[in-house]
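Example record

One chain of 510 residues, shown exactly as stored in the release files.
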Amino acid sequence: MSWPSDCTGRPRSAGPRRRRLAVIAGMALAAVLLNAPAEAALADCHVAGIAQGVQCGVVRRPLDPADAGRGSIDVGYVVVPALARRKLADPVFMLAGGPGQSATALASTVLPVVARLNTRRDIVFVDQRGTGRSAPLVCADPNPGELAEQADPERQFKQLMRCKAELLKLPYIHAERDLGLFTTAIAVQDLDAVRRALGAEQVDLVGGSYGTRVGLEYLRQFPTRVRRAVLDGVAPPDMVLPASFSVDNQAAFDALLAACRAEPACAAAHPKLHLHWESLLASLPRPVVARHPLTGREERFTLTREMVLSAVRGALYAPWLAAALPVAIERADEGQPEGLLGLAATFTSRKSTQLAIGMHFSVVCAEDLPRLADATERPAADFGNDFAATYERMCAGWPRGAVPEAFYRVGPSMAPVLLLSGGADPATPPRHGERVARLLGARARHVVVPNAGHGTMALGCLRDVVYKFIDAADADTALAVDASCVAGIPRPPAFRPISPGADSPPEPMR
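Predicted structure tokens for this chain:
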């Protein structure tokens, strides 16, 4: 047995054995009395992409909070210590999206966005249960896979069932029903256990996409423990994800068509874009030959409607990618789908944004699918209900956890909350943020970034807005932070490919 390390990773001084036992017993007793873990034992560690020293910690959590006899899991987290000697007491907890993203895997990407906050505050990345270092529900990744496989829903379902069979062999999964214990409501209890382990009275929450749902649930269960909250791309607990996507994807795509008509260069280059789109959809499914965007291998497969819609949906997340859609759509209509397929692979090929598929379905199948039949959203004309039908098929074979009815209710917040929405977001557009802001009450403020897509915090002046909101000395000052600068963030112009002999650069001066 080795003794715990101190926060530097060095072994603690041994001292008399009796004294050690007394100290350990006292800490354990205090933890029981306070219903909290003892103070965290952090160890120096390294996270890829982060140059400064960071610390890693673990809290042991019951797999099922209602039944301790069902075993336990370790929830891992990373602390990026404040740079200043006199740091502030409220750490910033970063909440990852997905559901299924690992917060620690995203740490190197997210840290520069909150660098100013890190001057005087610790930044904490907690891997939500089922992701990263916290009992991950990750399956063997078939990526890049064959394009034909992406076009076959039945093959996708069988792949997910193979994934489930793999997960049932994990040491922390003892029965199929255990996969239902990775819901948001349980996960935020893990999050609060990390807060207690770090000895923080209050925390600042910063969540993006699905992370905003986690933030809202933490606000519901632990309202006094939140000092400030920033929710970027609001995904409320009652949005019924598969149904809302059809409507929101359609609105974002219609806005793209309108933006092309309004931009002279785009309108001139693509005067019949809407006709190409209609023609492309009407031609599906159809056999095509195309090179795989990741392997470069030429493949013969059937291009389906869902493949096209998925590619368009993914590109709409980021306006700089959506700028290439006019060209990609026209060429796909002409039998050259490589551009669309390449856009679809842009996000899925990045390891930092890949999802823990098991955790993803454990959340969506428990929280969204049971409400699908009663959803008020009706499928949009182009995007239809294929997306929802896919999730219905997948969730039919996935264990479904219990979700308390109170989970779906958003009430007034005691803490100031800044909600951010991208006007061109195809997943969590402003309509969701507006509704949640009303429910949160007087201490909520909603800021819309007109030309932004999914996720706004990293854009231009938004970093400064978020910093000032969290750093403000009092709630009134925080809620009054000036965010007028967001109106100046432009929409990228339509992409113009360079053809041989056209648009050639001028000869250099000699």
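Notes: The first strand starts at residue 43 and ends at 45.
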